[in-house]
Design goal:
The chain has 345 residues and is of the alpha/beta class. It has helices at residues 13-22, 38-43, 56-60, 80-85, 98-113, 116-124, 151-164, 177-182, 191-194, 217-221, 240-249, 288-306, 327-333; strands spanning 4-7, 24-27, 46-49, 67-70, 90-92, 143-147, 167-171, 186-187, 200-203, 227-231, 252-257, 277-279, 321-322. Bound molecules: nicotinamide-adenine-dinucleotide.
Amino acid sequence: MGRRVHLEQPVHEEALALLRENAEVSVGFGPEARELDDALLAEVNALLVRTKPLGAEEIEKAPRLRVIARHGVGVDNVAVGAATRRGVPVLITPRANLRSVAEHVFALALAVSRNLLRADRCVREGRFAERDSLVGRELFGGTLGVIGLGRIGEEVARIGAAGFGMRVLGHDPYLDETAVRARGGEPVGSLDELLPDCDLVSVHVPLTEETRGLLGARELGLMRPGSVLVQAARGGVVDEGALVEALREGPLAGAGIDVFGEEPPPADHPLFSVETAVLSPHTAASTRQAMRRMGLDAARGILDILGGADALSPPAGAPWQTVNPSFADAGEREGGAAGSNAQDL
Ligand SMILES: NC(=O)c1ccc[n+]([C@@H]2O[C@H](COP(=O)([O-])OP(=O)(O)OC[C@H]3O[C@@H](n4cnc5c(N)ncnc54)[C@H](O)[C@@H]3O)[C@@H](O)[C@H]2O)c1
């Protein structure tokens, strides 16, 4: 079976070394850069994708493709439907960056609550005496609302309760009450009930047609006066125009934002002029530990699949997960065993 792997963007050196030891690897960066053109697509068996889009056209031009591995969890930059039609499993590395994202949520929450960016400027600019205007708020004893109690939401709930003594409310319509409790939240059936009761709200849902604009003007207007919103999920889940309004006019005291509807955001983005917003350039998962885990887990997934592992039933302890299990139906439709994954087309 072919073991031709291509990576468009750099990954952790240990992940690249693992792939090079076990496969024939080409890269789209550095001195050996190779363009992902028709010739390369014609021969490639595996693609490791970071943030660059991988479209349907490219997937359709890759007849030998047997696996796409995403470095991280979101797959909105991959044409998953096209991969499914072609019988190609799309893998994610579900646990690699959850701790980093959860820690970043609290980095943003603390930066907002303690006016850290303004405080830093005061010291550097010789305005030490202005510290009286920088009185912040503790997280301790407040109520944290977690919207979406998946992998990251659960970790945020855990840190909020154990690290900051917060009461945690959880809203997730896809989990029953027992599951929400097991993930550390008191179950709350609707956003309308959750939002008015929280001092800090953190959103951890995927971006789908259902969650686009989940927090708009009406929902932000329901938040507790003086509360803080953290958005480190996906741009589009929070309506940015409504957020600016809720920061300027209330009820929000501040917001920590890691993801934007358009990335990078345009130079005249209205959030840039709001002092109480702390912004980061989609770096919630960017830690040395998460980069290493994402790279190694994605490389492991590629090597497992190219080595014959079943994408529908990963080996015990596998650090990857298949997001499009119906990829296997393509093979059945075409009379194959398990899609293109079962053979070196
Ligand atoms: N900022 C970053 O760098 C970064 C890094 C990793 C992940 N993310 C994003 O974080 C988000 C969560 O990731 P995860 O790994 O925890 O995903 P996950 O799939 O484990 O959890 C998502 C949860 O959201 C719930 N959900 C779906 N629709 C909902 C709704 N309408 N209301 C409330 N809950 C809803 C689901 O039931 C699920 O429990 C994703 O959007 C992902 O793309 C961002």
